[in-house]
Amino acid sequence: MFNHPEQKLKRSLIDKVFGRITRHIQQAVGSLGDLWRTPFTSMMTILVLGISLTLPATLHVFVKNANSISEHWGSASEISLFLKLSVTDKEAQQLVQRLRLYPEINHVEYISAEEALKEFRALSGFGEALNYLDKNPLPATVLVTPTERSSQVLAAEELLQKIVKEREVEQGKLDLEWLTRLEAITKLIENVVFGLGILLCLSVVLIIGNTIRLAILNQKEAIAVMKLVGATDAFIQRPFLYAGVWYGILGGLIASLSVTLLAYYFSGAIIELTELYQSNFELESLNFNELILLIAMAILLGLAGSYISVRKHIRAIEPTAD
Question: What is the rounded CA–CA span in Å between residue 220 and residue 279?
Answer without folding.
Answer: 62
